[in-house]
Amino acid sequence: MKDWTSERVAEAAEARLIVPLPDVPRAEPDPRGREGKRPGLERVVIDSREAGPGALFVGLPGANVDGGRFAAAALASGAWGVLVAPEHAGAAARAAPGVVLVAERPLASLQHLARAWRRELGATVIGVTGSSGKTSTKDLLLAVLSPDRRTVASRANRNTEIGLPLEILSAPAGTEVLVLEMGMRGAGQIAALAAIAEPDVAVVTNVGAAHLELLGSVEAIAASKAELIAALAPHGTAVVPAGEALLEPHLRDDVRTVTFGPGGNVRLHRAEGERVEIDLDGASVRLEVPFTQAHMRINLLAAVAAARAVGVTPRGRLEPAISAGRGERHRLPGGVTLIDDCYNANPISMRAALDDLVVSAPPERRLVAVLGDMLELGPRAREFHVEAGHHADHLGVALLVTVGPLAAAMASGFSREVHSVSIAREAAALVPALLRDGDVVLVKGSRGVGLEAVCQALTAPVPA
Fold first, then answer.
1. Strand 328-332 and strand 336-340: pairing?
2. Using one digit for the tens of pLDDT, what is the confidence trace for 190-226?
3. CATH number of 6-105, picked from 3.40.630.30, 3.40.140.10, 3.40.1390.10, 3.40.50.12230
4. How far is CA 116 from each of CA 12, 43, 66, 343, 435, rounded to the nearest angstrom?
5. Which residue intervals of 55-177 are DSSP H helices?
């Protein structure tokens, strides 16, 4: 957007331009010692502390703080401009030189601006959603596509009505493929994100019992995830799990559907350690990947299917940068192995993580599971937690530590040593003393439980 005028930015954001771009040069010299003009628009931020030269600061109203209050400070820091609600327009206009845009709903204007930049880029957009695995699938797509296409993927879990437009706006000119993760907490939210991103390829990793508290049934969850498929233009591509009956009512005749997993168009033919052979609609693709977990291999199939939809067939060794807290392995003193999977949890991902704990652990190693509450599961929450305890028991987990009031129900389904605590801080104090040399320990729970405190306690340097 560096060449966009303030008038064009206002039009794209559907905002009023009350102070245009100044014609006068800035007083500060450029790095070469000559007077330089104010730089063009280079980035969009919502934190005024990041609002230096080239930045458009969008003052978003929040539950506790209204970002528009900091517009004058952003302009004083040399920001290209600010976008604020009407009540902050006067103070912004009286501040240091810079563009001032006004909108009744600054967040909606941010989203309009992001959609305009997505269209300007002309990139192919891949949207990724699902009850679990969407972040890892997004990370894998970046690794698969980058050797062949100039690819940008949304960072971390910036998959909300604020994060997604900011990620689109951070994509540089020349981007060929834009991979965007899309999260949801209720009906209509994926549709809203898709209206901003206008996806060409829709990836649904799976449908499971996440957000049941808000949506009421897995059928409603499937319908919400399928809003991404509904957003595709005719002749787009939907990438979905093979045999997922919950998604079948939402598939479209005018959209190409590619299935992945057992019995799908893209399926695993053979796996030996980190080497995998994938059957890609009859063609064989051989890859090396730095993981052996079954659920990660499924995510890989989804990524390969989506890559093929945009004309890329992966090859060779992949080195994905998997986001933190999603199955990272750490070697600790005493030969202890920590599996940090504490970013989030639902019944699907909890079962997959426990399965991986057993499959990946060397023989004769004691298995330990530190499991926290799985949130937003509605009336069946206790049932899902009891089932998780049963599954851990069936798999041979030797020691279970539950964290939180919901996770405590896991103990009723577990027949071996179990400890139940209320909060993560208590678990962080307890778990290190329970471990033995050679243990393999899984830490997993919903984000709101804060189990990273346990991982931090286990990985902290031992005092000399």
1. antiparallel
2. 999 999 999 999 999 999 876 666 777 889 999 999 9
3. 3.40.1390.10
4. 6, 14, 25, 32, 54
5. 71-76, 89-93, 106-121, 134-145, 163-170
